[in-house]
Amino acid sequence: MKTKLTALCALSALCGTAAAAPVAVDLSSWTAEGQGTWTNAPDNNSVVQTVNGIPGVYFNGVDSQGQALSGTIEVQSTGDDDYIGFVLGYNAGDIANEDANYILIDWKQGDQNYYGGLGRAGLAISRVTGALDDASGAWWHDAADGVEELARANTLGDTGWEDLTVYNFDLVFTEGLIQVFVDDVLEISLPGVYENGSFGFYNYSQANVRYGALTQQVVDPDPVPLPAAAALFAPVLFGGAALRRRAKRAAA
């Protein structure tokens, strides 16, 4: 593995991506908007959303481009099959803002028709350009209602999350690139032009979701989109959580 990584670094700028060590995220200053009850753990490093309701977010309130956020996500119940996920480039008040411009990453457990369209199982990334409510935009990514789907995940695009299962995630957010890893697999790598704004957690109609074990680190402001071969090594280069998990396994 070390030899392969050394060769990869010699051929690209990928090794410059992780510019600082990850640090634990303190959620005590984060803010909730929309519907939802978000309860921090005593150490303020994880939060549980307990309400089955309309869309809601819990966000850090600071510009977060050039950062990577890592942690875990788990639905801690066996009821319902709706949306969990994240927002990037979010600003205060955007959930009701008709002129919003931020990114939504949402993951639904099962297919379900509602509001005139199919809410598909799987992980997707969309651009939100309007108010996000209990309506067709949030439910099935209706561009006419302000939610334009940009892409679906490589392997989880039509696969829902499982009940009582802990997933590891790593998000990379820069002005020109968003990347999403789930369990060390690169699911989304999408170049584009993205507005600065907050990291946040997203929930739509799914109770008892824990977002936890959170760390954040600075990344290269202009990371290189990964070719298919390089994606095999991406968690080592991009994901602080993945790096720590490998270290733990090696120690064990």
UniProtKB/TrEMBL annotation:
Leader sequence residues = 1-20
* Organism superkingdom: Bacteria
Q: Which GO terms describe its biological process?
A: cell adhesion
This protein's GO cellular component annotations are: extracellular region
- Residues forming the TSP C-terminal domain are 18-223
SUPFAM superfamilies from the xrefs? Concanavalin A-like lectins/glucanases
Q: Which UniProt keywords apply?
A: Signal
GO MF annotation, one = calcium ion binding
This chain belongs to the protein called TSP C-terminal domain-containing protein
